[in-house]
Amino acid sequence: MAGARLKDVAERAGVSIKTVSNVVRGEVRVAEQTRERVLRAIAELDYQPNASARHLRTGRSGIIALAVPELVAPYFAELAAEVIAAAKKRGCTVLIEDTGGDPAEELRIACGLSDPLIDGVLLSPLCLDETMLANRERRVPLVLLGEQSYKIPADHVLIDNSAAAREATEHLLQLGRRRIAVIGQPSDRSHATTVQRMHGFLTALHAAGVPHDPRLVPDTREFTRADGAAAMRVMLALDDPPDAVFCFSDLLASGAMRVAHEHGLRVPQELAVVGFDDIQETRYSVPSLTTVSPDKREIAELAVDAVLHRITTDAEAPHTRLTAGYELVVRESTRTSPPTA
Amino acid sequence: MAGARLKDVAERAGVSIKTVSNVVRGEVRVAEQTRERVLRAIAELDYQPNASARHLRTGRSGIIALAVPELVAPYFAELAAEVIAAAKKRGCTVLIEDTGGDPAEELRIACGLSDPLIDGVLLSPLCLDETMLANRERRVPLVLLGEQSYKIPADHVLIDNSAAAREATEHLLQLGRRRIAVIGQPSDRSHATTVQRMHGFLTALHAAGVPHDPRLVPDTREFTRADGAAAMRVMLALDDPPDAVFCFSDLLASGAMRVAHEHGLRVPQELAVVGFDDIQETRYSVPSLTTVSPDKREIAELAVDAVLHRITTDAEAPHTRLTAGYELVVRESTRTSPPTA
DNA sequence: GTCGTTGATTACAACGTTGTACTCGTTGAG
DNA sequence: CTCAACGAGTACAACGTTGTAATCAACGAC
Question: What's the rounded Cα separation, in Å, for the pair A66 and A83?
């Protein structure tokens, strides 16, 4: 059951424990001859280092936490898969946490209190604000995903939400749409990502000389299908309903399209729809969804690299902002030509 | 940075280290007076036990691994969320692994080799077979999810796939459908779950006296939207295409419905569709999908309980089979009345 | 030939926890 | 009054690893 220990390998190879340790870690120079002998002993005994002992000694566990508001949201599931892959490539493991969007839980995790042995935290905050984070006690290396606020003392990985939103809006404008609704703006304006996207949206409207109708931006609580559906119902009850919707998540778009369908509204002919996230189901929905596709792999790799860098060189280096790419993927929901898959 | 240690608490409370340890763990009787003094010191110093040291000493880490074929598949994401919640309730954490359906990876994880400090493994196997598992070296407690094979030496948590499939099929038969296709049968028949579902399907057909047409059961590789789409295309090319499809996953159903839509086929009028898994997007698809809904929460709780039981009482107890509930949820894709949400 | 110098290896002491075996009063039975 | 039994607490040695400082041979340089 319990595997071989450093001591066993050392005895078999006829060297000291420390030499074996040196060979295993490869940090210290070991004579070629000894190294080979040790490696053979390691192979013969199938030695596996004991992670806990190592952690106890070094203070590193090789585990980083990834905290997302909701793992069942496809965007976060897809992102989590990329983070796991990126971490594995770099030899460490990922502990996934589901905060449920609870601020207290987010804070707890940001402080590294979720599990005592994690080395660092990747957090996708929903409602965490700077004042809460300002005086967090335990200083676990922290990287924030997809949040714009400059005030939080941590590294950020994000895409240029403003530019992406502008591009999406311009696409709708080019189709000739003028009454463009936005679904995904929370009432309290605290969520930096949505503020950026809203900014990009307004910039595009302004540049095209299209007036902005605030009634086309209903308050939205979460980024779920149900919220998208609810917002769409409100919008369709207007005297002059929108001819296009820009949704801040594909799930919102999915809910919105569903309601449009129920009202007999054809997408894209009578209502063009753009989403955000490029989740997989988007490509098979009826109709398939035009969406802003953040480069999730790049986000994951940047984030893992950033947190590992903080962990290994625990300098109080200034906090960085890392920008990943994105792409507007045009599909049926904004195509006037007939469906083609 | 580093928190208080047992030693610090002991000094503050004026007792020995061991007494503090006893209070923390609550296993040994401690006089009420001392206990209070220790508890106060713990609170004052905000003491948090060091997980690694504890693990090193006891051999337990409090971490269990959950390995799924593909985290981005919504069913597994939803299941993972339930497992995380169930584990948290019981005071342990979950390490999620994505096997990518790779048999070697599945074996590695089943042997507990994915990370050295895990106490036990929950594995949702895709292609693992008994011969591989028979002689796994390291004996980590293992619980298999959703697999029927009796031969694998491990506990199983599953639903009655055969009964569920029969029920789904009976539902389609009651709608008057007679040419019912099945999407989700892999060519090699090795995956026990699909064998059970196929069995339930055939039982229902037989009981209703409906002949079985093997051409309506195309080979399917994976449980993805793309595979569902491909299978549907094959089926629609037949001289006498099906009037209903029973898909072994909601994703397959999603792909199939997409293709039906492209061919101008109306669901449910010309093609009734039933899925399996009850993933969330199913409820907002157009049309919404009738599906077999396994009780994911119950599956998660049974599995976590089972693995914890094996960990704590490491008896070589006989392997158990635990059955969770399911439910057939009828939605638009098999409803002849007009859509109502 | 002696003496630093270098490079490879080792002994030893941590890291923070828990199990075992022990001490030390206190209590109750004979 | 003596002694066993008991309850509460403690000292010490692990668990397997790594950092530090020491050791030791080999090797040129003077």
Answer: 8
